[in-house]
Amino acid sequence: GPAHEGVLYVGSYTEPTIERLELTKDGQLERAGKVSFANLGLPYVEGAQVFSHGKAYFLANGELVVWDPEKMEFIGTIAVPEFAYTGEGEYLPSAAVVALGEDRLMIYGHWSDADEWNRWADHSTQVILDTETDEVVAAFDEPRSEMLEPYGKPTSDGYVYFSSDPAYQTEAITYGPEYSSGPFAFHMRTTDSSFDPDYGIDMSQLAEGRPAGVLTPVSDDTFFVDVLHTEFLPKPLTDPTWGEEAPAAYRFWIWHPDDHHATEIEDQPTRYSSTAFQTIVDGNVYVQDHDFEYTEWTLLRLGADGSVRSGLHGAGYSVGIVQLR
Hints:
23 strands, globular
């Protein structure tokens, strides 16, 4: 749920419901209602929730589902035809939703071949919705990148940065240029209706030609770039089996927007995977590191001073953190 409100919403993987839990003064979570989406024919509820203007939104079956997080009631659905699957043999849509400021949300996604998940269409798709009126205000394709996701936090001048994951960029090196996504980053203001056509960054050039992405602003002048150090790998990326026993090879670099190159951070753990899953709490950006078998995890904080600090550690696989108060 929204930060600082002491409320947690939990979606079930065994039934199409979301349950509301409230944090008591003594630190306990109490059940405070449940809403069902069985009328939509959903087997369960998954995906990120966006909260705005007293409503909550999530994606399901190519529609945007709207519900009331206070009354715990289903409100309705909004069709998103831009992500409709149009037939046998076509590219399949994969979409997610993110807040753009207080009054807008974006549905963003890419298209993967029905038979080969890592062969993507030659564009990504974005749809922007006004959450006050629940009307679509913009819908566009971005031909400069096959897959884009937002990372980090907006800058003080309202820019949100979108980029791709270096883990996906390796597919093009392994299987050919028609696979995966390029190493590009773009931005847009939360009030804009498209990406800035005059702005684009080739992140591999920031990191001496290595696969690089997940451009993460932590302040107006400090950005983290996640870089795959191919020199750490026992096999070249052109070998399809390179990832079967890959050692830790991902490291953060720091980039300042006025610089032509990023700089590798010396004091940091080398990781087994990229950090595409992020959480922002009180203005701090947190990412998760885990071992190769996903049996242990560590929470890392990306500091505005360019530091990488290790925090919580646990067994198993962590799916994220939320702020309750």
